[in-house]
Amino acid sequence: QVQLVESGGGLVQAGGSLRLSCAASGSIFSVNAMGWYRRAPGKQRELVAVVTSGDTNYADSVKGRFTISRDNAKNMVYLQMNNLKPEDTAVYYCNAEVVNGFGYRINYWGKGTLVTVSS
């Protein structure tokens, strides 16, 4: 079993910054893509950013403001969020595609961390 635990959410004023962290632990042979998704009130979950071994991708709405990074040795992924806007308010979820000891790729999700941006 694999657990993803997010941290770093909170309340911040518009224009401020937050850094989210996510730690993957458990039966991990390797981790492929790691990413962040979010679900705003009344909306569907959407991709925010994803990082693979050699590439990063961002939602258009966060390009230039958010930066995703990962520490492969620690199986961690981070999301640096700058110039936050009220529309960034959402529950942010960590996602990881994990390869287990049997070679199976399994998608895991964290429980989420709330980010609230006040105007």
How would you characterize the overall build of this protein?
The protein is mainly β. Helix content is 0%, strand content 60%. The strands form two sheets. Strands 2, 4, 5, 6, 9, 10 and 11 form a seven-stranded mixed β-sheet that branches. A four-stranded antiparallel β-sheet has the order 1-3-8-7, with no helix packed on it.
Task: Write a short abstract of this structure.
With 119 residues, this protein is mainly beta. Helices cover 0% and strands 60% of the residues.
> Shape, please?
elongated
The biggest beta sheet is recorded as:
7 strands, mixed
Number of strands: 11
Instruction: Return Rg in Å.
Output: 14 Å
Q: Report low-confidence residues grouped into runs of 5 or more.
A: none
- Portion in beta strands: over 45%
Helical element count? 0
| Average predicted confidence as pLDDT | 95
Binned, the helix content reads under 10%
Structural class: mainly beta
Question: What is the CA–CA distance across the termini?
Answer: 40 Å
* Helix-strand pattern: EEEEEEEEEEE
Name its key features.
mainly beta; four-stranded antiparallel beta sheet; 119 residues; single chain
SSE topology:
Layout: E1 2-7, E2 10-13, E3 18-26, E4 30-39, E5 46-51, E6 56-58, E7 66-71, E8 76-81, E9 90-99, E10 105-109, E11 113-118
Parallel strand pairs: 2-11
Antiparallel strand pairs: 1-3, 3-8, 4-5, 4-9, 5-6, 7-8, 9-10, 9-11
